[in-house]
Amino acid sequence: MNKPGEVLWKLNRLVFSITLVGYKVCEATWYHPPRQQSFYSLWFISKGKGEFIINETSYPVEAGKLFFFEPSMICERSTDLDDPLEYYFIRFTYAAAFVDKEKWNFSEETDIPFPLSGMYNIQNPPHVMNLIEQIHTLRKKRGATVAMKRKLLFLDLLLTIIQDFRSQRITGNTTNAIDATVDYLTANYQDNITVDVLAKQAGMSVSHYSRLFKKYIGYSPMDYLRHVRMDRAKELIVLSDFRLKAIAQSVGFHDEFYFSRMFKKVVGVSPTEFAKRHKTKETLPKK
């Protein structure tokens, strides 16, 4: 899919007409054999499970999934026998009508591909379903006011969908950025690392980065760094005969006494006591 901003830019150039709205409760034997679509339509799955095959690609279907179908598609649809599908659908047509450089431009739908196609995951299904339900409620009513309200609701629905995509993209990018700094911490724990450095790597402010790091990892950045350093220090205490000062320096502490205080704070016992309990050799790290 194109970036949400690009999709929104394309949608902004279109005008829409809703031709049919409905809600389908499928029987356990419900099945649509492969056939070419005749209309543009939006389907939102509210309950159940099934499988849609679109242009020979299989898609798992379950509550919260959103599909955009277009006339060029060959689709085959089936439902789960034990958990039949229920879904809303909105059939629509569109055309391009927009002003560019103070000049109106018009095009038929056959000249402009619709910017949404296939299956999409929705992060906030209740919000999307609420708007679809409102459009569905208006399906039997007539009049200029109803027609205008239906158009506005459909535009609100499309905007909500794009905002949901944008939120997912931001969340994904944020998670990747946090993961990247975790990898950096793990590989460079012995260096002089600050929250400022980590936030800059993630492309965030210090406060925003710290808050998100705690949310995704469960520790503050500096607490996480201390735990990584102490995990490595525990390995060195048990598996080596290095002096305590050398171990402290190897995990990023220049002051062995400060290291000892931090070790006891994180691990619960002093380095010497930890060595007594876990070291396999008789010789303890020398101070």
Automatic annotation (TrEMBL):
Residue ranges of domain HTH araC/xylS-type in the record: 179-277
Record flagged with keyword Aminoacyl-tRNA synthetase: no
Gene3D superfamilies named among the record's database cross-references: Homeodomain-like (1.10.10.60), Jelly Rolls (2.60.120.10)
One Pfam family per UniProt: AraC_binding
Keyword Oxidoreductase found: no
Segments forming a coiled coil: none
Record keywords, A-Z: DNA-binding, Transcription, Transcription regulation
InterPro entries: AraC-bd, Homeodomain-like_sf, HTH-like, HTH_AraC, HTH_AraC-typ_CS, RmlC-like_jellyroll, Tscrpt_reg_AraC-type_HTH
Protein name per UniProt: AraC family transcriptional regulator
Source organism per UniProt: Halalkalibacter kiskunsagensis
